[in-house]
Amino acid sequence: MIESRIALGARVYCRMLLAVIAGLLIVLTDARAQNRTLDVRSNAPEAGVYADGVWLGRVADGPFQIGPAIRQIRVAPASGATWSLDPLLFDVSGLEESPLVLEARFRLVYQFDSAPSGAEVRQGGRVLGRTPLRLSVEEPLDSAVGVYLDGFKAASVMPGDALWNRYLLELERDPSAQAVATGYVVETGRRDWVSIAAATSAMAAGALAIHFRTKADNRFNDYQEKGNLVLKSDIRRLDVQSGVALGAMQLGLGVVVFRLAF
Question: Based on the number of CB atoms within 10 Å of its own CB, is 206 exposed (0-12), middle (13-18) or buried (19 or more)?
Fold first, then answer.
């Protein structure tokens, strides 16, 4: 009698357990049926996908499964050089289709800098602006970009297609360029040679002035010791020569300073 009651209770318990399991399966199946497939298409496969702030994965990891209560999808660029790009936000609260396809295309940013700055930036025959220049475009720049500044050699770069592209071009001076000063066109190379010649002459004249001054001082010492009147004329001549050399040195220095200033 007791054994039959135990067997009956076990059968009832098994039936109840099976009913609970069946109910859970129905609930899980119904919840899965309500989930939607999210397919994010983007020009940034490394960008992160978030559903109501919850990380789902990278764009390249999709498609994703999202619940029916999801209201917002956020696609954010990967951290690093793209820190200045804003994320893309999509309101999906009223959308029920599955799969849910989102086009998340970021604008491309190009930053052009030059040393020195103020150079004109051109692509083909089109002027884009002057450095420093930042461009935000929907499609990648598909041809070389040139940088031009008077007195410097032109430089160019082939832009990439990343979300964030930065280029710094160091410009070299153009020795063949002409400089305009006080209304006259003067060759830059010739101006440099004149300055070099004036500086060299000033140095030579300074050395001669010191040489003549030293010799004059030595003659004067001999004159004080020996009282030889012939030495007085030598002292006078050396003083004159030292003064002329000193004047030549000052003239050369004046030319150098003038050319540096103008």
Answer: middle
